[in-house]
Amino acid sequence: MKKIFAILLAAVAFAVAAQADTNDYQRVEDVIYGRKFGMALTMDVFEPNHPNGRAIVSVVSGGWFSAHEAINAIFYQAFLKRGYTVFAVVHGSQPKFTITEIVPDVNRAIRFIRFNAKKYGIDPDHIGITGGSAGGHLSLTMGTQGGPGDPKAKDPIDRESSAVQCVACFFPPTDFLNYGKAGEDGVGFGILKGFKDAFGPRADDPESRKKLGHEISPIYFITSNMPPTLILHGNKDNLVPIQQSETFVAKAHEAGATAKLVVKDGQGHGWWADLQSDLDMFADWFDLYLRGIKNNHPRLKDNP
User: Is the pTM of this model over 0.90?
Assistant: First the structure.
């Protein structure tokens, strides 16, 4: 699992290495946003020298494995150069933690960011989120299920909302009960059998597995109020079939939500060709829905 994640990260780093890191930002590492079982949950904060007052949460996750070492500042250049403050969130990793235990970490991170909005000079009502693969899944989970905190919580951070206002992500799993085709079980089985630890012991029982698959699949939580969502997916992806994004976007349209799928022709699960342009497209999407700035990106001209 870690090897797969490392390969994907290396591809990203290679893809953008030619883009000069202008260092037109300040990086604060290992900001603690929460604790669980005696372990600190951390994020790195990238503050541009010319902030636009908007925030982007980057979910650092591949195969639901997350590590501080996986944070690469070069990946955020498209956002930083436009003034976005980027919060690179590291969550508790599988196999120690399952997906249902990881999701609360991302909720907590967004609540922490919103609680500290004034400190970071951001508008708490304009927060975007991004990620790839498992990070894309967690981004969509926040897009479809992020919401109000507990007004009675002892910790004031937990009283904040974990809702986001815009999503742009790469090749996310969206429906584990219909993984690649109708009725195909992906809850730690089939294509995803190598990721079984992320689903935990509930995946061992057929009835519990079905309930778990529904619980962790963003597609079952789509509403008309879902934030504008952009997905980029390769049509040769053998790990997360493009069907996952196609069905998600189709259902979003049926619900009256704003969603768009951009297909990366001939690409599999991760790529380096034109990745900088893809990140610029994400930045355009965030500009449009977090800042109200229309853009001319050729792949967004038919914006819904």
Answer: yes
